[in-house]
Amino acid sequence: MTVLNPRTGQCFIKVIHSSVWAGQKRLGQLAKWKTAEETVALVRSLPVEEQPNQLIVSRKGMLDPLEVTMLDFPNITIRGSEMQLPLQALLKIEKIGDMILKATEPKMSLWSCYDNWLATVSPYTAFSRLVLILRALHINTERAKIVLRPDKTVVTEPHHLWPTLSDEQWIKVENQLKDLILGDYGKKNNVNVASLTASEIRDVILGMEIQAPSQQRQQIAEIEKQASEQSQLTALTTKTQNVRGDEIVVTTTSSYESQAFASKTEWRLRALAAQNLPLRARHLYVSSDDVSDVAFTYVLPKNLLRRFIAIADPRTQIAGYMYGVSPEGSDQVKEIRAIVMVPQWATHQRVHLPDAMPSHDYLRDLEPLGWIHTMPNELQYLSPQDVTTHAQILARTADKPRVRWDGDRAAIMTCAFTPGSCTLSAYRLTPAGFEWGRENKDMASAQPDGFTMACFERVQMLLSDRFMGFFMVPDNNGVWNYNFMGPMHRADMSYGLQLDVPRDFYDEMHRPSHFVNFAGMESSAADEVDLEDEFA
Question: Contact at 8 Å (CB) between 350 and 376?
Fold first, then answer.
């Protein structure tokens, strides 16, 4: 197992002794999961400040094992890569090869793959040089070693992996290694190396899968053939009548007015896209930059978050009120135990909630901790619409002791749908933000008058699977989404609550109007003839 830090050149090599594989079956699967376990153990052994922000996996088969084993590190992003880095070429170096052959037990070792390069070149140049060397060693080990040591005067220091060369010598060696790699590619694919573009040369060196120019030309020819077929004019004649009975004949040679209109906000397309939202819950990122040291820390159970993401919509926001308690002996920590889904409708910028606050026996021993909502795009700050909504709730509940929100305890959590993942942030209002939001009337502008970054501050939030939370939904069959029946939602409406799992955004109970047309399909035209008109 090889783990490389491209910035510093540190390379962790874990030797897994053959005794581990003795008597085992399905060695391929076992090797993947064993590698994932060793990677997690390595990350856990590092100090927090040295733990990586992301892991780039060079083998696609390692993505699933790593995602499962890295659940304890939600802030570390796991990404796949099309680069086929030949890290196994490191085993062809005598020092590393001897260490592996002489190992009698599992062993972790740390090597510096950049030697002393960073004293004269940048990490980017050092990484590019290392890729060149490893690719050349992978293609032709003997020729690569000859290129690396052009004459007998070049020596390798005892504590280095590579020969000691000057910058000018390294430039010559890099050019020769590049020619070696490109020559091998041209020979295998029957391609003239001189015809490759700069981007293709870069892809070949990095090991990305690119097609030979002959295959590319064949695909281009097929696309041009399809375009020429579509460009042939087809005349379409349409006969219609106007209100006076005059016949109108129109002949067109284009697709004008003959194509079906498709909106980008078509609910059917978004309903299909919403099916992939649970997959994003596998990649969660918690934003913890510039958090307040004196504010409360909010702990959100993962079961609530995963279900909240699964019932959402990729574009339209959804929201829920949060309720929780402080664990014994930790007054500065707030554990969120419940999310209440109240009747609501929303746009991509804000959520419309009823004025009445939730009330139920199950919430009597819990304190209100604010609200959580989704966002179609990530913002680096709290939106003015959220500031206004939160401030108005604080002002509306100030004179109601049973449902009163405390400005210090009530937070706003946002769950932004970033590509392939979800980014979580938590905020609370400052006194200046409360005063501004209470008076603000501009809910459409992205930067209303008086809105500043001083209206809010970030607070610490954590994810946990140590405890579970529950949902509460309206008691009218669990219908909370009024986006498809807007006139039924009013700000002064009342509602009851029940303990239940919330329905999906596009559940059939949330869109009854879509099923009205089905009633007319049950009786056919033949049946209508037999109907007797009593008033005829």
Answer: no
On the question of pLDDT at 526 being above 50, the answer is no
Of all helices (H) and strands (E), which one includes residue 498?
strand 497-499
Name the phi and psi angles at 106, rounded to 5: -55, 135
Nearest to 357 by CA among 398, 386, 324, 388: 398
- pLDDT tens sequence across 121-141: 888 888 888 888 888 888 888
Measure the CA–CA gap between 176 and 180, rounded to whole angstroms.
6
Other beta carbons within 10 Å of 424? 20
Q: What letter does residue 8 receive in the DSSP assignment?
A: T
Establish how many alpha carbons lie within 13 A of residue 483's alpha carbon, considering only the half-sphere containing its beta carbon: 20
Which range among 15-29, 374-388, 475-489, 512-526 shows the weakest confidence by mean pLDDT? 512-526
pLDDT at 262: 59
Q: Distance of CA 287 to CAs 75, 86, 383, Å?
A: 8, 34, 16
- Given a cut of 60, whether residue 342 has pLDDT beyond it is yes
Which residues lie across from 427 on neighbouring strands? 412, 458
Q: Are 372 and 320 in contact (CB under 8 A)?
A: yes
Residue 77 has pLDDT above 70, yes or no: yes
- Dump pLDDT digits (tens) for 9-47: 888 888 887 777 777 777 777 888 888 888 888 888 888
Phi, psi dihedrals of residue 258, rounded to the nearest 5°: -115, 0
Q: How far apart are CA 285 and CA 136, in angstroms?
A: 38
Please name which of 344, 383, 338 lies closest in space to residue 361, comparing C-alpha atoms. 338
Burial 479-512 (b: 16+ CB within 10 A, else e): bbbbbeeeeebeeeeebebeeeebbbbbeeebbe
Identify the H or E element spanning 300: strand 297-301
* Concatenated DSSP letters of 129-180: HHHHHHHHHHH-HHHHHHHH--STT----TT-SS----HHHHHHHHHHHHHH
Q: Are 493 and 354 in contact (CB under 8 A)?
A: yes
CA distance 390 to 484: 25
The Cα 300–Cα 318 span in angstroms is 17
Ramachandran assignment for 190, one of left (phi > 0), alpha (psi -120 to 50 degrees), beta (any other): left
- Collapsing DSSP states into helix, strand and coil, what is residue 474? strand
In three-state form (DSSP H/G/I as H, E/B as E, the rest C), the secondary structure along 79-120 is EECCCCCCHHHHHHCHHHHHHHHCCCCCEEEEEECCCCHHHC
CA distance 51 to 42: 9
